[in-house]
Amino acid sequence: MNEVFKALADPTRRKILDLLKEQDLTAGEIADQFDISKPSISNHLKILKSAGLVLDEKKGQFVVYSLNSTILQDVIKWLLEKKS
What we know:
By secondary structure, the chain is of the alpha+beta class. It has 5 helices and 3 strands; from the N terminus they run ααβααββα. The chain has one domain: Winged helix-like DNA-binding domain superfamily/Winged helix DNA-binding domain (Arc Repressor Mutant, subunit A), CATH 1.10.10.
């Protein structure tokens, strides 16, 4: 769970998750939304993927990223259980 919270701690990664809430996107489409280098975006995506927050699927020459809603549901459940 610590890896998830570390991934969520960064505002750029939270914005990436917000973008992926709306629709699945390629790394290039995600990078177009930021004023930082593509390698930096790639690193953020790697961290999000490692934490299980995003999924990736190769489609032709592109990798399409999507939100892993299952892990987010698990985090919410965990938080609610800790609260009671």
